[in-house]
Amino acid sequence: MAELAQPAGKTTGPTDAAAARLRGSPAVIVIVLALGLIAVIFAVFAFLCWQAFGTTLQSAKGKAQTAADIVADDVNWTFSAGLVSLRLIDNLGSAAFDPASRAQIESTLKRLPVEPKLGLYDANGAATAGPPPEGLPPALSATDYFAALRQGADWVIPPAGADPRDILIAKRLGGANFSGVALLAFPMSLLQSFWEPQHLGKDSTVVLNRDDGWMLGRYPALAGPLNASKTAANWPQISANASGTYTTRSPVDGVVRVVAFRHIPELGIIAFATISQDAAVAAIWSSIFIVLWLLVPIAALLLVFALIIARMLRQSERTQAKLSAAVAHNEVLFREIHHRVKNNLQSVASLLQMQPIDAAIKANMGQRIAAMSAVHEHIYRSNNFSTVMVKNYLETLIENIRGGADPRVEVSEEIEDLAVDKDAATPLGLILNEVVANAFKHAYPDGRGGTIKVRLAKADNGDGRLTVEDDGAGFDPAAPGKGIGQRLIRALTDQLGGISAMESAPGSGSRFTLTFPLAKS
Question: Which pTM does this prediction carry?
Fold first, then answer.
């Protein structure tokens, strides 16, 4: 009856455990992430739409500024070329009024980007060499810019008049001895040629103003003179900065425009380029429609792919569980095998010590067996069964050899932690064991002391290079080798696929070198 007293709703069972695993399943996580990603995508899209107005205005400001810079460069080049032509006329002096010189001057003006009209006036402001071209005033005596030139100004760009058709540049002739005025008139269509390549859209404009605010010209054309310093609320910003952008409602036609400007200080002119805000924002709706047309199918495909991937993940989970169990089992088997081999080698070493054979032979065989045993111990204590990092392994071997040798002989070690194939570790250790043991045994007779230097490093060609050098009594290279050690070294070198050599060291002693291939990374 005790189970009847258990509170309702507190029982757990296989169903609850399965539900918990399902909630943490990668397949469920993929579906949840896909739905979350779709929600985030649309949330971001909504946020971007909300920000689109400001972003579009910023883009329009950049485009307007680029257009203003281009217009300023074009105006500067064209007007500067016009001033150069006027100076050439001034250099002709009185000959500029001759019909022959007039033909030469007009030929020069045809080389300008837009051919202007030229009028020549004498010191009283009257036209010379016949009536001026159509559109130019018959006399200049009543104009403000004629008075300014007569009083000493070198050149003047007068503001647009009541019926602006041309942009004028007036040049004083005669230098200190005022002899007249040369007047160039660029047609207002010049601004249209600057406006058209910019593709600024409906209700956009290109404007030239003097730096005192008076308008020189506008495209599309505007009737009557206009002083922007009195009508533009942003004129302090325009005057104080070499270039910039702002948004304002035009006092002329009421259109809200993005305005960009740039000063041309050498001419005293400010170039403006404007873009209608309504025209710029109109493109947002087209972009929103296009993005939605692409986004909705993409979101649907994303959800379908998530469902497919979730199904594949469920199948992969089952396969992965089986593989993980197999890998874990194999690792245990590998460790057990190497552990058993190490124990068996130790048993062999113990049996060897029980045999009635020479003590030196027992010691040599024991060291060789210890070298092989150390490899297997090093492998089963690590997580890598394909390669062996040999630094600790070789240091252990050297320490074992030094433990039973003459303490007056020191060992200097410079061993890099190189990776060698598991099948190469044992031959390498046995070779080191043989060479170092022979150095202890033969290099220092009569109880003399010394130092054995062991180095292992990676050579320039990518191979490993082992060097064992002593400062002992040396050896006779011509003497034939009688011991098993040299034959063992040659056999182990061949097994490594390397090259070994024993030679006399500089000064005294001997040096053994072994070059062998390292494990592929």
Answer: 0.50
